[in-house]
Amino acid sequence: MNKDIQPLIEREAEKKYLNLDDGDFLDFSDQEKLKAFKVGASFALSLFKWRKVSDELPDADEAVLCKMKSPSVIVEGFIYNDNGVPKISTQADFEFEDYSNGEVTEWMPIPQID
């Protein structure tokens, strides 16, 4: 997903940059302005990356997208630790096959795109 959304973010940053009045950033060079936008775009992209459960886990009460070990699917749920094995707990109203207690390999926050 990062490669798909990166051009969109960069295009929007460039559009915004080109529409700025010089008075908005009087003390900044063009290169400094561009660098600031790239830093912002980089931060935005970091929100859309998969994280290995071996590196970090979300808060227990945070619903996230989870990549399952088997079957190979992506499910929304909550990650908990079962004797050192990260597993998923799904909502009670989850309409598809029950993936509760399935082993999770990676997770990411649910993107909030307005």
Summarize the structure.
The chain is an alpha+beta fold and 114 residues long.
Please provide the count of β strands: 5
Strand residues, percent:
15-25%
Order of neighbouring strands in the sheet with most strands: 1-5-2-3-4
Could you say how many structural domains there are in total?
A: 2
Count of helical segments?
A: 2
Helix/strand structural class:
alpha+beta
Helix amount, in percent?
25-40%
Low-confidence stretches: none
**Whole-angstrom Rg:** 19 Å
Ends: how far apart? 17 Å
Q: What would you call the shape?
A: elongated
Instruction: Summarize the helix and strand pattern as letters.
Output: HHEEEEE
Q: Whole-number average pLDDT?
A: 78
Largest sheet: 5 strands, antiparallel
Structural topology:
Elements: H1 2-18, H2 30-46, E1 51-52, E2 64-68, E3 74-82, E4 85-89, E5 104-109
Antiparallel strand pairs: 1-5, 2-3, 2-5, 3-4
Helix pairs in contact: 1-2
What does this structure look like?
By secondary structure, the protein is of the alpha+beta class. It has two domains: 5-48, no CATH class; 52-109. It has two helices and five strands. The chain has helices at residues 2-18, 30-46; strands at residues 51-52, 64-68, 74-82, 85-89, 104-109. It has a five-stranded antiparallel beta sheet, with no helix packed on it. Strand 3 and strand 4 (85-89) form a beta hairpin. The model has no long low-confidence stretch (mean pLDDT 78). This is DUF551 domain-containing protein. It comes from Dysgonomonas capnocytophagoides.
